[in-house]
Fold this protein.
Amino acid sequence: MKIAVLPGDGIGTEITAQAVRVLKALALPMELEEAPVGGAAYDRLGDPLPESTLNLAKAADAILFGAVGGWQYDTQPRSKRPEQAVLGLRKHLGLFANLRPSIVYPELVNASTLKAEVVSGLDLLILRELTGDVYFGQPRGVRIAEDGPFKGQREGFDTMRYAEGEIRRIMHVGFAAARKRGKKLCSVDKANVLETMQLWKDVAADVAREYPDVAFSSMYVDNAAMQLIRNPKQFDVMVTGNMFGDILSDEASMLTGSIGMQPSASLNESSKGLYEPIHGSAPDIAGKNLANPLATILSAAMMLRYSFDKDEAAGRIESAVRKVLAQGLRTADIYEAGTTKVGTVEMGDAVLKAL
Ligand code: IPM
Ligand code: MG
């Protein structure tokens, strides 16, 4: 098992360090190799995704990724910004299927801002298409408007596009996942306004015919955003495009109490995967031993399950996480009265001990 470890920026280094400790403690035959990415790579090598890092990621069976970004890079030209590293890795490795589970642990039911009865027992999977949509569509840019009331002014433009095959393959991943879970799939679109999304909806309905055992529905994204807050437990698997999935998965993470608890897997056609917490680099708390490492530790568990077929080892990590939560240990983001506040390293210690 060759694993590329790309810690990145901000809290990325702290949280991946804890996940690496956990992986090593399993004593499985694995090789871990680290490389800089994001702002850290830009500072050292002048490129957020240096060729050496990309080559390491390509050669690895799986990638453990921390987080990238920082205020100091926000004024850089777009190609030099840390975010380009994430987008570049996704595109170069063909990581089109992004699995973002939202699970409400019984111990954290009060950490959510929503009423306990709305979220308790929630087990939702958002499947986000990750290599298409307006994120990658060409053409894009800023030009001078040639007509209309704002003629002569600068206008920004991006292109939303999805090919039929792109929609089909993500739907197949979604239906296969739904089959192993609650057997319900909701495709989220904006077919009432956008041509691309009408195609999305039609192709989703077509693929659904191949999975008669899975209950299929379609929902407009604005309604889906509302339903996620109103009654999230109506959903099992939600499949959506790149941009809507970005937004809905952040929203769904808060159902669980903290974005610091949310792992993710981004897979290509051959189950090579990049595993990362869905949160960012949180520069405001970086280096202070405050970050929650559990999302990254749970991402390592997803790695074992999806890239290496090691369900048992993945389950051990997940049980260890449940155990530390049951012991009442909490990082600041999930802290509530009556629990014990711990730092990033202490949380890692506790997970190791529980393992
Ligand atoms: C995410 C992030 C990224 C995205 C950024 C960092 C490019 O928000 O993984 O959700 O928009 O996909
Ligand atoms: Mg996001």
